[in-house]
Amino acid sequence: MSDQVTGYAPVNGLRMYYEIHGSGGTPLLLLHGGLFNIDLQFGPLLPGLAATRQVIAADFQAHGRTNDVDRPLTVAGLADDVVGLLGHLGVARADVFGFSVGGAVALHLAIRNPELVRKAVISSVSFHPRGDRSENTEAVGEMTVDMIAGTPMEQDYLAKSPHPDRLQVLLDKLGSFDPGFAGWSDEEVRAIAAPTLITVGDCDAVKLDHAVEFLRLRGGDVNGDFTGVPASQLAVFPGTTHFNGLGHTGMVREAVLSFLDAPMPG
Fold first, then answer.
1. Hey, what's the torsion of the CAs at 176, 179, 183, 188, to 10 degrees?
2. Helix, strand, coil percentages in the chain from 3-state DSSP, rounded to 5
3. 192-221 burial string, b = 16+ CB within 10 Å, else e?
4. Among 43, 114, 191, 259, which residue's Cβ finds the most Cβ atoms within 10 Å?
5. Phi, psi of 58 (to 5 degrees)
6. How much is the pTM?
């Protein structure tokens, strides 16, 4: 990984930390989940993803090496930061791979900024609150520093954050993440231009039938021997929870690269 570049982009009051690995092809943008960061979410996957293309990874507001600002955490706000980062880097179009909160941001970009997204990998996130298991939402709303003491998330936050004393502030912001967001309509999901790979764990925070509903709206769940394989696809990872949603590195890498490397439809 000797060709790794790191930097900070001035975006919306943030010093948004980013890394660039590898070279060539359509850039692939990695967007992590809540309470995670580049290393915790994508560390084991990065070498394989960057072997054949340029990979850009970023830490969201208040995560990893990126500072916090006086602004709640919302999908729209984080997506606006990502648009600013791509502008700062001079990237006109990218493939986007987002997990959980990052998956919600990837979905937002595919719907609201379609010119920026060639293909989208949307992992472990619903397009509508009806797809979420209720216990996950309740647990996130009650998180305290004591509850995550000794975990890699706590250790990474303390080691990397520009303000290590604000972990409870981050947990509170995640607990009230995107209040009142009503989800995307079926029509909005159906109209996404970018081919979409939906991934979910078989025991994830997102219901499996919702992932299939998502796939159907994207033109999937058909008899491909007769109709052809749709541009949008679904991968269900076995033995996989939300917390370790990208834990089966080889399986995830194979699914993502096969999807990204396939020719664009038409």
1. -110
2. 40, 20, 40
3. bebbbbbbbbeebbbeeebbbbbbbbbbbe
4. 259
5. -135, 150
6. 0.97
In whole angstroms, give the CA distance from residue 84 to residue 81: 5
Query: What six digits make up the tokens of 99?
Result: 């997990």
Of 128, 107, 126, which is closest to residue 117 (Cα–Cα)? 107
Q: What is the distance between the alpha carbons of residues 168 and 59, in angstroms, rounded to a whole number?
A: 18
Which residues make beta-bridge pairs with 201?
237
Three-state DSSP class for residue 163: coil
Output the six-digit token pair for 235. 């991968």
